[in-house]
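Attaching the record inline, Q. Sequence:
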Amino acid sequence: ARRTMMGYEDYPAAIVNVTRKVAEDFKGEIIITENGICTADDKRRIEFIDEALTGIRACIAEGLPIKGYCYWSLLDNFEWQLGFDKTFGLIAVDRTTQTRYPKESLAFLGSQR
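Structure, as predicted:
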């Protein structure tokens, strides 16, 4: 299986599988609050987002009460034990100047409905 920079399996359908499982017992509205991929390849991040959202849309079409989706994370952030090397964000950060650089994945996610 493909792996992310964190060593996790690169499996965007996991959020769909978990959402369907949660919906079996939880009868309230569902908001997905963290879903993303740690990769230096922003084209892969776009593919990951697209694959995850395709699955989420299928869940909505099945009648699951999904009311929101939040990508993790807006900025390339500090991972407590690993520092700044792992990149999850939709916006890159130059740690010397603190300048922010929006990635193509930010525009892609913003274009989704």
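Residues 42-61 form the longest helix (20 residues). Residues 33 and 45 are 17 Å apart (CA to CA).

More tomorrow.
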